[in-house]
């Protein structure tokens, strides 16, 4: 375990040096890693379904392939998130060619996600959906404010894409979205929804669920009265504690355990 990961573990849990706490697995077999990561991606869709992030054909989560990193896995068009299995996933390249899989793919998923994966080699997963609170907040045309410990995760850590021209169908708009994302963990697509990214599917999905919840919290707080903001230095310190790869990965683990216990069919 690296010093950085150990320090993150110590910050996350009392007794981290003595007792086992969840840690991302490591692999020597790339094909075993691919299968594991596909199963996590399938679980991500089950998590989205649980949170009612499904809206018809909209919404997608992608995973960079660990063997051929210029390709990525994505959900098949027309299968409900609650029914997606690892074997249903489709792998495409940055030109839009289907490499593996037996289903069509949402064109908007390709136009957006391919450009984000190309622009951010550090990002292995990208999550996007048209959620109730994400859509509502995106109509404000503003960034989230640091009004809570959870919202600090996105303080100076998300962008705003202020252009809406309809359904994303061209790679040029995907390039603009990637530019608005920058080096951040998320971007609000004005009048559209949210995108989050992560070094793993677990992190990207956990970040998305958290961001949607933060949108809901700010909408509720703004409706009730003036906001009291967390100070700049404290917000940055809180973001540093909550935004590490280990913590963002860890945020998905309780949900994954519940999904696996209730219906492990996504593994197939």
Q: Largest sheet, if any?
A: 8 strands, mixed
Question: How does the helix and strand content classify structurally?
Answer: alpha+beta
The CATH topology assignment is L-fuculose-1-phosphate Aldolase
Helix content: 40-55%
Report the average pLDDT across residues. Answer: 92
By DSSP, the count of extended strands is: 8
CATH class division: Alpha Beta
CATH superfamily: Class II aldolase/adducin N-terminal domain
The tally of domains stands at 1
CATH arch. level architecture: 3-Layer(aba) Sandwich
Q: What is the C-alpha radius of gyration, as a whole number of Å?
A: 18 Å
- Principal-axes geometry comes out as globular
What string gives the helices and strands in order? HHEEEEHEHEHEEHHHH
Output the number of helix runs. Answer: 9
Q: Give the terminus-to-terminus CA distance.
A: 31 Å
Report the portion of residues in β strands: 5-15%
The low-pLDDT segments are none
Protein name: Decarboxylase NovR
Domain Class II aldolase/adducin N-terminal: 39-219
Family: Belongs to the aldolase class II family.
GO molecular function: actin filament binding; lyase activity
Overview of the molecule:
The protein has 268 residues and is an alpha+beta fold. Helices cover 42% and strands 13% of the residues. The protein has 9 helices and 8 strands. The chain has helices at residues 3-12, 30-50, 107-119, 132-138, 171-181, 201-224, 232-242, 245-250, 253-262, and strands at residues 60-64, 71-74, 90-93, 98-100, 125-129, 158-161, 186-189, 193-198. The protein has an 8-stranded mixed beta sheet with strand order 4-3-2-1-5-8-7-6, with helices on both faces. 41% of the residues are buried. One of its GO terms (molecular function) is lyase activity.
């Amino acid at each position: 375990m690296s010093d950085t990961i150990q320090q993150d573990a110590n910050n996350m849990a009392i007794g981290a040096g003595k007792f086992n706490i969840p840690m991302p697995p490591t692999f020597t077999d790339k094909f075993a890693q691919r299968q594991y990561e596909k199963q996590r991606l399938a679980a991500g869709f089950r998590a989205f379904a649980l949170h009612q992030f499904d809206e018809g054909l909209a919404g997608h989560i992608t995973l960079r392939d660990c063997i051929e990193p210029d390709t990525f896995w994505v959900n098949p068009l027309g299968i409900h998130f609650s029914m997606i299995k690892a074997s249903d996933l489709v792998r495409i390249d940055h030109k839009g060619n289907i490499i593996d899989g037996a289903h069509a793919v949402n064109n908007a998923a390709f136009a957006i996600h391919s450009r984000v994966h190309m622009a951010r080699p550090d990002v292995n997963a990208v999550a996007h959906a048209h959620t109730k609170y994400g859509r509502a907040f995106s109509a404000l045309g503003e960034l989230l404010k640091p009004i809570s410990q959870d919202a600090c995760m996105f303080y100076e850590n998300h962008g705003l894409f202020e252009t809406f021209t309809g359904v994303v169908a061209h790679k040029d708009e995907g390039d603009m979205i990637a530019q608005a994302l920058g080096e951040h963990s998320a971007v609000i697509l004005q009048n559209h929804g949210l995108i989050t990214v992560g070094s793993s599917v677990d992190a990207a999905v956990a970040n998305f669920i958290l961001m949607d919840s933060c949108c809901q919290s700010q909408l509720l707080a703004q409706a009730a009265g003036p906001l009291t903001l967390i100070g700049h230095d404290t917000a940055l310190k809180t973001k540093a504690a909550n935004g590490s790869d280990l913590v963002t990965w860890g945020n998905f683990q309780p949900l994954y355990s519940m999904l696996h216990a209730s219906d492990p069919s996504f593994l197939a």
